[in-house]
Design a protein that fits this description.
With 200 residues, the chain is mostly helical. It has a domain of 139 residues: Tetracycline Repressor, domain 2, CATH 1.10.357. The protein is built from ten helices and no strands. It is globular, with a radius of gyration of 19 Å. The N and C termini lie far apart (51 Å).
Length: 200
């Protein structure tokens, strides 16, 4: 029987090293020198691919969160408003639990501000595109209301970002805001109802 070997590309190795560095010291304290050391290469090797830490970390975010979304959606179908809502909630829950995102939010939250206030990032474009395609497919069967799929998807992405990043602040209001590990199940159910109602 032939064994299957999984080879890791040099780029993935460098991104893995960047992930290690962020988990260890945070985004703002991660340097190309640190990443190069962890990857076992020279700093110039990284400079040939990424001119600065920001571009390296942007590629890392895109890769990591695309993988998280792919795992969250594995085996799901989205042919109805209910199923689209389930998929949205699954993705939000998976991203909320993602170690890299949690580390960035806990240590360097200002890193996310440009993507919330000024521009869409590649990860957001990816999510909006996937959601728009899903909505368009469900529209063809009449399972989701008519409308521009891209507009519907981006509107849902706007709403979902609050549930992703801030749901814990609304948890347990009788005792004050919950921490990042607060039980936000009730809010996930509200997000599910919101998406279902919006698309129905």
């Amino acid at each position: 029987m032939t064994s299957i070997r999984h080879t890791v590309s040099p780029e993935d190795r460098y991104l893995d090293a960047a992930r290690e560095a962020i988990l260890a010291v945070g985004w703002s304290r991660t340097t190309l020198t640190d990443v190069a050391r962890r990857a076992g290469v020279s700093r110039m090797t990284l400079y040939r691919r990424w001119p600065d830490t920001g571009t390296l970390l942007a590629d890392l975010m895109t890769r990591e969160w695309a993988r998280t979304v792919e795992r969250a959606l594995d085996g799901t179908s989205a042919g109805s408003a209910e199923e689209v809502a389930d998929a949205v909630v699954a993705v939000v829950a998976a991203l909320r639990a993602d170690p890299l995102l949690r580390r960035i939010v806990d240590v360097d939250p200002e890193t996310l501000l440009p993507y919330l206030l000024d521009r869409r990032g590649r990860s957001q474009e990816l999510l909006a595109g996937l959601l728009a395609d899903t909505i368009a497919g469900a529209q063809r069967t009449g399972a989701v209301r008519p409308g521009d799929p891209a507009l519907l998807a981006r509107s849902l992405l706007l709403a979902s970002q609050g549930f992703l990043l801030s749901a814990h602040t609304m948890a347990a209001p009788e005792t004050g805001p919950g921490g990042r590990d607060a039980d936000v199940t009730a809010y996930d159910e509200q997000l599910r109802a919101l998406v279902r109602g919006y698309l129905s």
